[in-house]
Amino acid sequence: MKISALLLFCLLHLVCGKLVTKPRVCRNCTGKIHTKRELELAKLPLVIDKSQICTRGKRYEFFIIIKSGSFSKRNFTRSTWAKEMKENFNIPILYAIGSPNNKSIQQDILLEEQQYHDLLQFDFLDSYFNLTIKTTSVLVWYDQHCSNNSDYLFYVDDDLLISAEKFVLYMARMNYSDTLEGWFESSGKILRTGIGGVTKENFPIDIVPDYLWGAAVLYPSNIISNKLIKAIYSTKLPIFFRDDVFINGFVADEAKIKRQQMQGLVLYDRTEDRVKDNMIVIDFTTEEHRHRAWNCLKYNRQCNQNLLLTLFKLISGCILTAIILVYCYKIFKSMELFQVLTNHSYVIFYEMKALCQDNINTIMILRRRYCPMVKCRKVKFTIYLILHSKRTYVRLGFFLMIVLVLCYLF
Ligand SMILES: *[C@@H]1O[C@H](CO)[C@@H](O)[C@H](O)[C@H]1NC(C)=O
Ligand SMILES: *[C@@H]1O[C@H](CO)[C@@H](O)[C@H](O)[C@H]1NC(C)=O
Ligand SMILES: *[C@@H]1O[C@H](CO)[C@@H](O)[C@H](O)[C@H]1NC(C)=O
Ligand SMILES: *[C@@H]1O[C@H](CO)[C@@H](O)[C@H](O)[C@H]1NC(C)=O
Ligand SMILES: *[C@@H]1O[C@H](CO)[C@@H](O)[C@H](O)[C@H]1NC(C)=O
Ligand SMILES: *[C@@H]1O[C@H](CO)[C@@H](O)[C@H](O)[C@H]1NC(C)=O
Question: What is the membrane topology listed in the Swiss-Prot or TrEMBL record (predicted)?
């Protein structure tokens, strides 16, 4: 019975997983591990520097560096949240770019710099496989020039949206911390295939520690200067190109730097206008969606476009709930319920708490904390998907199920 239930959940997980994961094909998977020498590229003088931004005595609330590879994303960012951040709150924002292997593009970059004065250009080829070098360069640069001028570096991708007001408030309320914050991914197996994966010969360790996605990470300045950079340069691990897994995972773990979920940071969801209710939205499917989300936030235009998808999610949510209800009713009858519940009662309790708080992030964190086992995680992932759909009556159905189960128990 339990096996069949697990199979069912796995199936659902698979089906639902298909909807959220982007397929990525690996065209050329070599060159994913750097040598120590390559890491020294991060210490080269910059092509376009900005050290003058942090003169002595100048203080900033916090500092933002945007990891960027595309002019159009920078252009959109400059005219939206970054503009508000700069003009309304006086937060410094720089765009970290590498060097192109094409002279005419370098010409464009110089023109862009003349116009906006906000580029930090490093002297190595800008490429997905050079991400760890880029992030290390940013950390080294920040440490050398700006770490005494602000308590935090917020290092983000160029394809997210931030509510400037909310984030400034969030930072103002923050007590000084020694913890990295971002989108928390709990420990799991390392990816062995696809563009982000690495072979066993190149990187023999199977388990990735808890890490933060590269999309948006808040680094306290003293952690950068006193721990992180040293740890990056002294680690004995192979230097893996994925900066998030390597720096925010392996290296941070070795250096005993804490990592946690940032509250108010959510993943983009095509069926909801999440920017309004949250502080930061990451993981947009396309730039088009990011533009729409901004238009929705600022001008109340183009909100909740995808009716079909909303409908699909609604219906699949209901079906999932129904399946779970039927399933629970069956075990309820077969008296195996008690056994299942003693295994999972803590899950249900905390789910319920999270449900009441109506907070997806809480659920994500609980998912990690109370679901160390993979088996259990699958169940929780399905539950998470249902809650995630945020439709009142889907939730009601789910809630009903919990009540039913609890009524039986007590
Ligand atoms: C793959 O990368 C290697 C080394 O970086 C290079 O020599 C090779 O030409 C590349 N192959 C393709 C198909 O791009
Ligand atoms: C840059 O963004 C502005 C809007 O802020 C837009 O008018 C302009 O066309 C964009 N430029 C390019 C080259 O995309
Ligand atoms: C360099 O980039 C420009 C503009 O993107 C393009 O027209 C040109 O063909 C590129 N040159 C080389 C050598 O790749
Ligand atoms: C990373 O940058 C170095 C230095 O510019 C370059 O030689 C190397 O080809 C780059 N790696 C990739 C994968 O593009
Ligand atoms: C920052 O302050 C520390 C301690 O006072 C000092 O050692 C370091 O040189 C300073 N860094 C910069 C870039 O001024
Ligand atoms: C910050 O510290 C103060 C006093 O120690 C405490 O009252 C407050 O709740 C803390 N705020 C946060 C966000 O932790």
Answer: Single-pass type II membrane protein
Give the ligand at the shortest distance from the Cα of 33.
4
| Ligand 2 pocket residue status of 107, Cβ below 6 Å | no
Q: How many CB atoms lie within 10 A of CB 9?
A: 22
CA-closest candidate to residue 268, choices 182, 377, 368, 159 = 159
pLDDT at 200: 87
Inform me whether the pLDDT recorded for 117 exceeds 80: yes
Sign for the CA dihedral angle at 172, 116, 221, 148 comes to negative
How far apart CA 215 and CA 160 sit, in angstroms, is 8
Q: Which domains does the chain have, with CATH numbers?
A: 21-263 (3.90.550), 267-305 (no CATH), 317-409 (no CATH)
Instruction: Give the length of the chain.
Output: 410
Question: In this structure, which residue's CA is closest to atom 9 in ligand 5?
Answer: 144
124 CA from centroid of ligand 4 (Å): 6
356 CA to centre of ligand 6 in angstroms: 24
Q: How confident is the model at residue 3 (pLDDT cuts 50, 70, 90)?
A: very low
Give residue-wise pLDDT tens across range 340-380.
Answer: 555 555 555 544 444 444 334 444 444 444 443 434 444 55
In whole angstroms, give the CA distance from residue 238 to residue 36.
Answer: 9
* Tokens 């499917």, located at residue: 285
